[in-house]
């Protein structure tokens, strides 16, 4: 604060000096002609205008005056320079958390001033901008549809959150897919002072479906035209952004530009930075009408209240109908219609400085917009080629984009000092649960993990699947981390049915996975695999949370609860669907067991039949799963009986039993208290038994575990005594919870544990 006050005093002193030094100088020079308050008398010779003495004296006075004037001008130049430096530094003083206002770039509003601003280097003006209040909410509208656009929105939001110092209210016009993805993402992201509202894009289709559109954005690319009807009538202004935008500054600076709108200006837009609307890109190129180069609608400032009063809906519809009679369709979606309206009504637009929308399209002239990195405010990847677009400085822009793409979103969960967040029930409940934990408990970190909210991005890649109409469909469910990616292609080759996978990754690893998947012909040919990213947080691998996420997002009536290290036998998908009918799973509580085997060989000739598998068992190429280290886990499957079985047979639950099963989708979730290694599947099977599920072994089904390096969690379990103590404590607490929940029937679990 002291530094700000000193800076203001310097600023004031410099201003006063510039004003008063010339005045003082003239008073001094004029006073030189007086003595004791009276005019100094001149000699008769000096008083004669044409006398030699008078001429010489006048010459000397003029020369003296010129010298003094040059000195004063030089002093003024230096003072102006100091004043300019003080102005350019002043925004940094106002950017602290204790400041109530921001200094914003001076907008232009007309193309001549804009060009002058570009030449001047987009410098900032101090003290001429209306203030953006510290806790004023900034409203942002985004149209988003589909799986890929949902990923783009996340990167855009990250760039906004990184720079912001104001509460934000996002208005998302989304289809059903994007809403499911983004609602879950923001709910689990839990960013303070951020509010999200959704508007059904599918309900708006009828408003714009009559407009033929050639643009790759499709019908959703026209929906910005109807925001005055879509957004709440109480909302007066909003910043509208495309999903392919990256912010390089605080969005509050753009919000402040609204205060510069004058008269009937209701649209804030940047001039289009290509020659598209000039119609000279190729022979017979015929664009929609536009004012000069036209305007780009990737970034729009909308004064909604004034637009409604002007009857914007009627205005754009009449214009679109008239132009479509000759143009037949739009080429650039809503942008063509916006420009046609502006062509007729140029008074509607306030022209934003070009750095608020640096357009990296195929024929861009954006390089004329900036001279330095500091000039950039918003980068717009408005080419279908996106990051592959050609531009002199594309490497810099790409690196900036990748920075936010791979940035840890958990770091953006920061509070805005001095701006209280709206009360959130989920957040309050979480804080209450955490406060009840004893931080001195040696198992505190284990207990805390149960309540950790992990940011979750559902359907990270395109997903398209309709379950079979006969209600027998089965989804394979599994979870994995980055070190198991190599198993994905093999599983897809063995299992042709739908798959639901939860991947535990960092933001950077999620992008590595995306590149891996997009480079795989096998994975890209499969649209029935749902990839759900659960972002890393904390020191434990939340194995049961991952399983629950994958289980929750299946579309079939049944699921096969597997692990990523297992390859199912060829044809298992169809075999399980037949077993569902044969064993009447729809009317009975059964858990169908798929017997598990393992190999110690990285290269395996996978058995194509049960007979071939039995032969490999006899030769020692295969083994029953974990027979040498954890026999109890799968012993109740009764592999001796399975060798000769031709029909399904029932087995009883035993302590530490953890088979891989097929169950209905309404089965209980996994218990989240178990993280990392140990008891995560055992507890689930115990609960299935407590709920009176019948365990039935399938005679002609099998799966084989492939070898891999030991996981980090099993290494901790083996080397850390406290880890094992805490796991034992959690087991005992789980059994006590089972007894309280299921009563007398659950006592057998305590007895079995004591006897084992």
What's the gist of this structure?
The chain is α/β, with parallel strands linked by helices and 756 residues long. The protein is 41% helix and 15% strand.
- Annotation field: number of helices: 26
Largest sheet: 9 strands, mixed
CATH architecture descriptor of the largest domain = Alpha-Beta Complex
The name CATH uses for the topology of the largest domain is Spore Coat Polysaccharide Biosynthesis Protein SpsA, Chain A
How many beta-strand elements?
25
Chain-averaged pLDDT = 82
Radius of gyration: 36 Å
How many independent structural domains? 2
Name of the level-1 CATH class of the largest domain: Alpha Beta
Percentage of residues in helical conformation: 40-55%
CATH-assigned homologous superfamily of the largest domain: Spore Coat Polysaccharide Biosynthesis Protein SpsA, Chain A
Q: Report the structural category.
A: alpha/beta
Dominant shape: elongated
Organism: Pelecanoides urinatrix (Common diving petrel)
Transmembrane segments: 12-31
GO molecular function, one term: glucuronosyltransferase activity
InterPro entries: Glyco_trans_8 (IPR002495), Nucleotide-diphossugar_trans (IPR029044), Xyl/GlcA_transferase (IPR051292)
Explain this structure to me?
The protein has 756 residues and is an alpha/beta fold. Helices cover 41% and strands 15% of the residues. It is elongated and about 105 Å long. The N terminus is likely disordered.
Secondary-structure blueprint of this entry?
Elements: H1 2-31, E1 34-35, E2 38-39, H2 44-47, H3 52-93, H4 111-120, E3 138-144, H5 146-163, E4 168-174, H6 176-189, E5 194-200, H7 201-208, H8 227-230, E6 237-241, E7 245-247, H9 251-255, E8 267-271, E9 295-303, H10 304-309, H11 312-327, H12 334-344, E10 349-352, E11 358-359, E12 378-380, H13 394-405, H14 425-435, H15 444-449, E13 456-457, E14 474-481, H16 487-494, E15 499-505, H17 507-518, H18 521-524, E16 529-535, H19 543-552, E17 558-561, E18 566-568, H20 572-582, E19 590-594, E20 596-598, H21 610-619, E21 623-624, H22 639-644, E22 649-651, E23 660-664, H23 680-690, E24 694-697, E25 703-705, H24 712-719, H25 721-742, H26 747-755
Parallel strand pairs: 3-4, 3-6, 4-5, 8-10, 11-12, 14-15, 14-17, 15-16, 19-24, 20-25
Antiparallel strand pairs: 1-2, 6-9, 7-12, 8-9, 13-16, 17-23, 18-25, 19-23, 20-21, 22-24
Helix pairs in contact: 1-3, 5-6, 11-12
